[in-house]
Each structure stands twice: as structure tokens, then as C-alpha cells.
Amino acid sequence: MRFGIKRSLVASAVFAASLLTAQPDQTDDRKVYADKIRANYNFHFGPGKISTPGNLAVEGADFLQPDAFLPASYCGRCHQEAYSQWRQALHSNSFRTPFYRTSVNILLRTKGI
């Protein structure tokens, strides 16, 4: 978990920095994506609380497109040991397993996410 938090924080910092130089169409793309997700998102902890119960926040306090996050291989350039351990773990391969894929497909079919 420790490495996941670091990776998320680094990705968030990089994304926040990219917003400072983002072109108008990039921020428009983010808004369109966020509006689409928000339409069906279950705000279990209240409207606008997308990170609760965690305390992670992003610039603009809204949903981020998946491509806003750096791939794990990028982090692996500097954090080679952590990346190697993660790469061999079940979590890094979860999307390749039939059980996980089935769960994702159920979410897509029933919730649209």
C-alpha cells in the first residue's frame, strides 16, 4: 500500500503541474469526462466528496481522466525494487484474471463505470 500512495501522490502532482500549462481544450475534456462520471457516480459520503473517506485531493476537486495518471513503468525507472515487487504481485496482474474481468464487466453493465 505504501508504494501505491507514493505513486498516486506523484501522479497527482504531475497532473496538477500539467493543469498550469493545460490548453483550454484539455481542461474542457476533463470537464466533459467528469460530467459523464458524475452523472452515475454514487456519492456515498455526500455530493462532491469523491475521495472520502480518504483525504487525497486533486486540483479542481473533480474526476480525472484515466490517462492523467502515469503508468507504473514510469515510476519503476527510479523505484526499481518496488516496481519489480509490485510487477510480480497479483494486484499488478488483476486485470488479466477472468474473475476480475467479470467483476469489471458487471460494473460496466450495471453502473456504467
Keywords, separated by commas or semicolons:
5 helices; mainly alpha; 113 residues; 57% helix; 0% strand
Description:
- The chain has 113 residues and is an all-alpha fold.
- The chain has one domain.
- The protein has helices at residues 2-20, 24-40, 72-76, 80-88, 98-111.
- The model has no long low-confidence stretch (mean pLDDT 78).
Task: Indicate the topology.
Blueprint lengths: L1 H19 L3 H17 L31 H5 L3 H9 L9 H14 L2
Strand content: under 5%
Class based on secondary structure composition and strand pairing: mainly alpha
Work out the count of structural domains.
1
Ranges where pLDDT stays below 50 over 5 or more residues in a row are none
> How would you sum up the global shape?
globular
- Tell me the Rg in angstroms: 16 Å
Summed up, what is this model?
With 113 residues, the protein is an all-alpha fold. Helices cover 57% and strands 0% of the residues.
